[in-house]
Amino acid sequence: MAPNHTLPPLPYDYDALEPIISREIMELHHKKHHQTYVNNLNAALTAEASALDSNDLTQIISIQQKLKFNGGGHINHSLFWKNMAPYDSPATKVERSAPTLLAAIEKQWGSLKKFTDAFEAVLLGIQGSGWGWLVSKGKKGFLEIETTKDQDPVMGSIPVLGVDMWEHAYYLQYQNNKASYAQNIWKVINWEEAEHRYVHGVQDIASVKL
Ligand SMILES: [Fe+2]
Description:
By secondary structure, the chain is mainly alpha-helical.
């Protein structure tokens, strides 16, 4: 059976994140960039199946980087769309939407502000393309800020929330002002989703079906 990963629909309208993230960025990011990861993932899986059939070990190995890049791109973007909610919607209010996660953040960082400052510093420290993540580790829900390079997915811990720091995520609107993008993103973070992933310890990538 041919691999059939598909582009998940956005859980809001393309202009729902304005004025923080423009409709133009969201349309290109979702319909073009994410769709390309999905297409290339399906192509890589088809090529891998054929290489496995013919037992072509060199070919099997050569496909793994494409699988990692495009499979990671599909996972990361599927998580990212759900990490955001319409500007000024109830889900973006942390006290209301993420009481358990907020308590854990305050316990570890001292305050939400100290956490967001630390997270923004990590985002701005990413060299080249990559992602910043708040992850939860182990049964006690220990929180950490992590980065992944290019489209590497989070592995071995729960991605509570992630921020795409590729230029395609902000450049059309923020140009080189990466700091402004990193500061503004909090206004469209979906804290309900972050709370759900933190409390239930789920990767919530069921729609990816890898
Ligand atoms: Fe992206």
